[in-house]
């Protein structure tokens, strides 16, 4: 098999097209005002920053982002944090909102349609290859390695795949491959997922990452657009057609996953539920987390707000500004409160005698005095009233807030307002 770690300039011949229009309904109220890719993650980043950073770090300098649902905060973030690419260096960064380019009554009908409606813009890029990316997953990956495999195999499409236990693969699109990883069948959410030839207890699940030659993809999109009954979707229409009528190869994620010396596993997370989002966030507080955000060789780029340092004040028994096994972002003030396994995002305030345990706090929140909050996700800009206790009485939590199946409580400002009105 080819050595996929031989450097080459393939990334300079490619563009990245990021699909970032998804609502993410399973994140409940977190996506009432923002698309899933715009949800905060890791204290200062957004979820989409991971796919975009992977592209930049891989050497891809031509990027487009297709947006649709609740796109304002996402577009604002992209404009602030991703405006450093320069046209005079053959670089570009375009945001492509759904604009009814095909018909006045048509937004993006599916993932493939989100590309098809911008064919003229894509062709103007003149890129030989196109990498289709989902904008709503947390991972670090060198797309150059996947591009090299695509060229070496002569594939029509190369599909990024995760190795998952067969018992857990029924919720994915699953690749049935031969001994060389050529895809011989694609099954959407199968009841009995096919195993991998060399690992029969595992299955290859699609990551929603695809590499094409640009000209070939444009031909397929035009063919699909003319096909009656198509749902205009990569996973449901484009990929199955190519598997049946062309050549598709699987690219196993561990081959191109980027790991620092502190990372022992190939890390990929879909943070599409409150429970998964909370767990991935809290995992960052581990002494040696599976995802290394401090890897200077593969930085996660984002909009860097100009903020003062975090500050801890008061030093009395029961009123000591402190944090243990926690991430505290810039412009945060812990004023006599205590954090334990907590992620505190930019600009938040924690007042005296309050205790936060396994809390994910989004930017610009205010935690009132004597509040006790355990296993919570707090939306941006929420003011927690003095003395509020969440995480100790499941019935109370479920009555006023959004409590998940695994006991994580989501708190938003409208929920707080209803609680205060009842008092």
UniProtKB/TrEMBL annotation:
Residues 17-285 form the Nucleotidyl transferase domain. Keywords: ATP-binding, Carbohydrate metabolism, Glycogen biosynthesis, Glycogen metabolism, Nucleotide-binding, Nucleotidyltransferase, Transferase. Its EC number is 2.7.7.27. Coiled coil: none annotated. GO terms for biological process: glycogen biosynthetic process. Alpha-D-glucose 1-phosphate binds at residues 108, 173, 188-189, 206. It catalyses: alpha-D-glucose 1-phosphate + ATP + H(+) = ADP-alpha-D-glucose + diphosphate. PANTHER family: GLUCOSE-1-PHOSPHATE ADENYLYLTRANSFERASE, GLUCOSE-1-PHOSPHATE ADENYLYLTRANSFERASE-RELATED. Involved in the biosynthesis of ADP-glucose, a building block required for the elongation reactions to produce glycogen. Catalyzes the reaction between ATP and alpha-D-glucose 1-phosphate (G1P) to produce pyrophosphate and ADP-Glc. Homotetramer. This is Glucose-1-phosphate adenylyltransferase. It comes from Devosia epidermidihirudinis. The gene is glgC.
């Amino acid at each position: 098999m080819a050595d996929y770690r031989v450097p080459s300039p393939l990334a300079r011949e490619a563009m990245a097209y990021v699909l970032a229009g998804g609502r993410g309904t399973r994140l409940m109220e977190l996506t009432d005002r923002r698309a899933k890719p715009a949800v905060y993650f890791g204290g200062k980043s957004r979820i989409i920053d991971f796919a975009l950073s992977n592209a930049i770090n891989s050497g891809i300098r031509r990027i487009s982002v297709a947006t649709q649902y609740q796109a304002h905060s996402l577009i604002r973030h992209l404009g602030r944090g991703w405006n450093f690419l320069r046209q005079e260096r053959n670089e570009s960064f375009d945001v492509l909102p759904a604009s009814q380019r095909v018909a006045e009554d048509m937004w993006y009908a599916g993932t493939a349609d989100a590309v098809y409606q911008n064919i003229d813009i894509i062709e103007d890029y003149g890129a030989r290859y196109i990498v289709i990316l989902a904008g709503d997953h947390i991972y670090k990956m060198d797309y150059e390695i996947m591009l090299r495999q695509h060229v070496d195999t002569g594939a029509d499409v190369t599909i990024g795949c995760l190795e998952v236990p067969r018992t857990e693969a029924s919720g994915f699109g699953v690749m049935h491959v031969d001994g060389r990883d050529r895809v011989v069948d694609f099954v959407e959410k199968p009841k009995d997922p096919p195993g991998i030839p060399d690992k029969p207890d595992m299955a290859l699940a699609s990551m929603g990452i695809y590499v094409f030659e640009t000209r070939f993809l444009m031909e397929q999109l035009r063919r699909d657009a003319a096909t009656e009954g198509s749902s205009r979707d990569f996973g449901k229409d484009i990929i199955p057609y190519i598997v049946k009528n062309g050549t598709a190869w699987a690219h196993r994620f561990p081959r191109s996953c980027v790991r620092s010396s502190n990372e022992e596993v190939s890390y990929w997370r879909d943070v599409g539920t409150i429970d998964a989002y909370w767990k991935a966030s809290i995992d960052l507080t581990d002494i040696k987390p599976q995802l290394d955000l401090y890897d200077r060789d593969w930085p996660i780029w984002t909009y860097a707000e100009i903020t003062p340092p975090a500050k801890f004040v008061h030093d009395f028994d029961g009123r000591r500004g402190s944090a243990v096994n926690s991430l505290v972002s810039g412009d945060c003030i812990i004023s006599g409160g205590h954090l334990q396994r907590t992620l505190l995002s930019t600009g938040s305030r924690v007042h005296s005698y309050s205790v936060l345990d396994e809390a994910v706090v989004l930017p610009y929140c205010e935690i009132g005095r004597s509040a006790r909050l355990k296993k919570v996700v707090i939306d941006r800009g929420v003011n927690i009233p003095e003395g509020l206790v969440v995480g100790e009485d499941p019935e109370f939590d479920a009555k006023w807030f959004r409590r998940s199946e695994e006991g994580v409580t989501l708190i938003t400002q409208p929920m707080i307002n209803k609680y205060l009105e009842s008092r």
